[in-house]
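name: query_chain
kind: protein
chains: 1
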Amino acid sequence: MANLRNRSGFWMEATLVFSETNEKGISKEVKERYAVEAASFIDGEKKLRDEHNYANRPIKRVDGMVRPKYGTICFTDDATAESFYKVKVVITEEIEVKTRKGGVRTKTKAVSHFHLVQAPSVEAARKAVVDEVYKNSNADYEIADVVKTRILDVLENDKHLKQKED
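structure:
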């Protein structure tokens, strides 16, 4: 896969609702899903509105603003990677637990981590996580699930509006 860039932050996901007129002149509601880097729901909505108003696509409303489970997004410079995949990685950890009698025993605990990965396919998303995110990890992990999302684009802080102005 092409170069991969990881970005950790506070992310929000939202569905934006637009009114669009088709070639027959009929107005239709269109829903699109976006991820945005934002510290609060209000900040996230403002960034989404600013971005789409800049592109002359006024938003009718913002639905379903949620904080997703992932904290890291992996971007690629591969031109064929137009989709985003949510990758669930389960890491098995051994922890020591004190017993009632004062002893210590080892217990196995599974912890789930989620990553949003830009990739051209499910296999490429899986490979990106293995080869780039966990390549230097000694953790005992397994990729439990890779799901294609409906996210069309990710708005990073100070990225989109500046790119359009240049």
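note: DSSP finds three helices and nine strands in the chain.
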